[in-house]
Amino acid sequence: MDIFSTEKLLELAKVWDSVLDAFFQSANLRPQQILVLGCSTSEVIGHRIGQGSSLEVAEVLLPPLLERVKQQGIFLAVQGCEHINRALVVEEACVTHYGLEEVTVLPSLHAGGAMTVKAWEKFSSPLMVERIQGHAGIDVGDTFIGMHLRPVAIPIRIHVKDLGQAHLTLARTRPRLIGGPRAIYDESK
Fold this sequence. Notes:
This protein is an alpha+beta fold. The chain has one domain (about 5-140, about 160-175): Hypothetical protein TT1679 (Rossmann fold, 3-Layer(aba) Sandwich), CATH 3.40.50. The protein is about 30% helix and about 20% strand. The chain contains five helices and nine strands; from the N terminus they run H-E-H-H-E-E-H-E-H-E-E-E-E-E. It has helices spanning about 5-25, 40-45, 55-70, 90-100, 115-120, and strands spanning about 35-40, 75-80, 90, 100-105, 125-130, 135-140, 155, 160-165, 165-175. Helix 1 (about 5-25) runs parallel beside helix 3 and helix 3 (about 55-70) packs across helix 5 (about 115-120). The protein is globular.
């Protein structure tokens, strides 16, 4: 496994900070909404997904995101890999607020990934859930978080397309538009 140099980790942190600025400006998340994060640290360092999990990269990426989540008063759900059925680490308060069903599994480096391991360490009261309906998402390395987003997902386009070597996809959601030709919608949302 290639470990990023200190210089590369610092550059990664700067790019990530820029990504977070742009994302939170566009996502318009309200307090107690859910942000889903899927992140292949393997892809960030240039390996195939699941083939080079990096706790060092997770340690660079997670703290600034947790700080933004705290400032916004939203919940963060960190998705694990398919080896734990893409279960998510969430705070107990999120489980309580949304009436989520807890599942029993502990994330590890090779069953969940580096980001879920770090989330489990850093969250104040972490629990695992198998399903969630997030209001927005950040997908680093094509981890396929769509199953955990509410319909209707809307792409967020920013100036950054990749984080390290990983493809970056951002999304927010909006309620479904219902009705027919007479229906009126608030287009500002």
